[in-house]
Amino acid sequence: MTERTALLIGEQGVKRLSEAKVLVFGVGGVGGFVCEALARAGVGQIDIVDNDVVSESNINRQIIATWETIGQAKTELMQKRIASINPACRAEAFHCFYLPEDKTVTDQFHFAAYDYVVDAIDTVSAKIDIIIRSKGAGVPVISSMGTGNKLDPGKFEITDISKTSVCPLAKVVRRELRQRGVNDVKVLFSKEEPIKNGGRTPGSISFVPSTAGLLIAGEVIRDLLGLNTK
């Protein structure tokens, strides 16, 4: 399955990815496509963390969500999907809700054992904790900011958290990290003004979170291969 990939990154690149271990928090609209792209690129280990099950409202944007998978755990579905795409990829599913105050959950994860950490969850306190733990372990981390209420995937950018604007979630994360003296954090965010839908539940569409997930996966892969110089 790596023949076409090797034409781009060479056999050494394929080998590097096959030896890489990536920890992905969140297997929703963004995280699901992160896992999809990492598995198809030949990453050797992808551990996935999520406590949710598929619901009907997920079908419009989540790669594992279909009418047949409603009610099933997202981590288990993604674990099976990874195995069907890349049998050589080791995938461990952690069906849990990651919160910094729940040590029975957080102590399961040894961040230093990974080559990269991806944060694709919504809870601010958990995002901050994941970023801090990753940086403390010396492991590269990328965090997804808000993708809800957006219609233009061309407005996504990957940059340092200090350079973000417009995104309400990025504003909160930026403030919380600054208060803790944490800097140099890579994030994906959108410069598109959120669309007001009149309710508290964010609107979503098929091509926006998926694009965000693929952009994040691409950044992770290029970093793992040492191709990003900026």
Automatic annotation (TrEMBL):
Xref: Pfam families: ThiF (PF00899)
Location of the THIF-type NAD/FAD binding fold domain: 6-227
GO MF term list: tRNA threonylcarbamoyladenosine dehydratase; ubiquitin-like modifier activating enzyme activity
SUPFAM superfamilies, per database record: Activating enzymes of the ubiquitin-like proteins (SSF69572)
Stretches of the chain forming a coiled coil according to its record: none
GO biological process, one term: cyclic threonylcarbamoyladenosine biosynthetic process
The name this protein goes by in its record: tRNA threonylcarbamoyladenosine dehydratase
Originating species: Emergencia timonensis
